[in-house]
Design brief:
It is globular, with a radius of gyration of 22 Å. It starts with a helix and ends in a 20-residue tail after the last helix. A hairpin with a 2-residue loop joins β1 and β2. Strands 1-2 form a two-stranded antiparallel ribbon. The chain is built from 19 helices and two strands. By secondary structure, the protein is mainly α. It has one domain. GO terms for molecular function: monoatomic cation transmembrane transporter activity.
Length: 459
């Protein structure tokens, strides 16, 4: 029986196995969270609500139906944090990384899975996985230690657990918090003017959202030579693009939030520095993490729509974040600019982007926009009390695995909850990966064939 199971697993394409692994983690987490020991009231949570929470944690989204501090026991919070860690790294990355750290060799099958899960190169996947696991735990540990400076004096020994939880949640871009004892359902609003909390969590969000391939490139090109007193080399093209896009979006987001919300959600903050601190944090968090330093429900509709754009863009490929990815947006923008200039190829920084990458970017964006429209329609249909902007905000937050909410999540109907669960799942594994996982046929290969050209007039 075991040999048959192994054989069947071996025949499953890697992309499908990765998609299945996330579904299995969510279901196991939902079963555990639905048990009485996970809630402070000692009563069972309905399976749909437990499934929503498990899906939100595993897909590192942060949309919640209950305040995490008040509803879940320490055991329940540990389950949620475990789901966040596994979901942020990916089950394949986590298990493969632990095997490598224990000096076990990777088989060809595990190698294929790891490459699919990290977007890395098969020749360097072993060192990449080791670096991912080690770097992740190191970042989370440093972040937790910095947060302890604030939370231990405030909460005593409980501040240690709060710091660890927030550090892991921030690095994995999850947006869950357990500071409800300070302000119920307030997330990080009480710390909007606190640079230590906001900058530490913001830094963890940015690092987790850069992508494992970029982090590896920075380490090997800049940090490792510095430690060995050798000559540093330049970053590869992908890393430079990701860093450029991250910087541009953070600066743009900060300026827009600061200007639009200066006399609104930021008006009660004590001074200019505090307002700038909150705007910077919201700009960083809005693209993928979902921590809130202001009351999202009170934001102007234009600010919400701008946040929808940031959430839709998301983080970098191969990172703990979601969205269509920053590089996808860059490819689309460069394609439009190139076409307007009369060029046949997509050009950026004197480099030609291959057409398959352009097609992939178009496919991801088109599929994602269709999904958003469908889920927004479902929410407005089954929850007519929610306006269109808030429904779009909620759907985009789920797809981008962000977790920001205009305060409507707990009021959603069962149908809308199911739609958002599916949206979070698709957003985490990626619409193309899910499509490939469904469409791939075992052992069935199609040879390329030459087809007659079909001419269509567009524009």
């Amino acid at each position: 029986m075991l040999s048959k199971i192994k054989m069947r697993l071996h025949r499953i394409p890697p992309v499908r196995l990765i998609v299945i692994s996330f579904a299995v983690i969510i279901l196991v987490g939902a079963c555990l969270l639905s048990l009485p020991f996970a809630t402070k009231g000692g009563q069972s949570t309905t399976f749909l609500d437990a499934l929503f929470t498990a899906g939100s944690a595993t897909c590192v989204t942060g949309l919640v139906l209950f305040d995490t501090y008040f509803h879940w026991t320490t055991a329940g919070q540990v389950i949620i944090l475990t789901l966040i860690q596994l979901g942020g790294l990916g089950l394949v990355t986590f298990t493969t990384g632990m095997s490598l750290l224990l000096r076990k060799k990777l088989g060809l099958r595990n190698l294929q899975l790891a490459v699919q899960n990290t977007n890395g190169d098969s020749g360097e996947i072993g060192s990449l996985i080791r670096m991912i696991i080690t770097f992740t735990f190191a970042c989370e540990a440093v972040g937790a230690l910095l947060l302890m400076i604030r939370f231990i004096p405030m909460m005593g020994a409980h501040g240690i657990w709060v710091s660890v939880f927030l550090a892991v949640s921030a690095y994995c871009n999850a947006g869950f918090d357990i500071v409800g004892n300070i302000m119920k359902d307030g997330n990080l609003i009480p710390f909007a003017a606190d640079p230590l909390v906001c900058l530490t969590i913001g830094a963890l969000i940015v690092i987790g959202g850069l992508g494992f391939v970029v982090i590896s490139d920075i380490f090997h090109a800049k940090l490792q030579p510095l430690a060995h007193h050798s000559q540093r080399r330049g970053l590869n093209f992908h890393s430079r693009v990701v860093l450029l896009m991250a910087a541009l979006l953070i600066v743009l987001g900060t300026l827009v939030f600061f200007i639009l919300e200066y006399d609104n959600t930021l008006k009660n903050l004590p001074d200019f520095g505090a307002k700038l601190n909150a705007a910077l944090f919201q700009s960083i968090s809005a693209r993928t993490a979902g921590f809130a330093s202001v009351n999202i429900a009170q934001e102007h509709d234009f600010t919400k729509l701008f946040t929808v754009l940031l959430m839709f863009i998301g983080a970098a490929p191969g990172s703990t974040g979601g969205g269509i990815k920053t590089t996808t947006v860059l490819v689309l923008v460069c394609t439009v600019v190139s076409i307007l200039r009369g060029k046949e190829d997509t050009i950026f920084i004197h480099r030609r982007i291959d057409k398959f990458t352009v097609y992939r970017a178009l496919a991801i964006t088109s599929a994602s926009m269709c999904l958003l429209l469908i889920v927004t329609g479902i929410i407005t249909t089954f929850d007519p009390q929610i306006n269109g902007v808030d429904a779009l905000f909620e759907a985009t937050s789920a797809f981008g695995t962000v977790g920001l909410s205009a305060g409507v999540t707990p009021r959603l109907s069962a149908v809308s909850k199911i739609a958002l669960i599916l949206m979070m799942y698709i957003g985490r594994v990626g619409p193309l990966s899910l499509g490939l996982a469904i469409s791939l046929r075992r052992g069935h290969l199609h040879a390329d064939s030459v087809l007659p050209e079909g001419k269509i007039i567009v524009g």
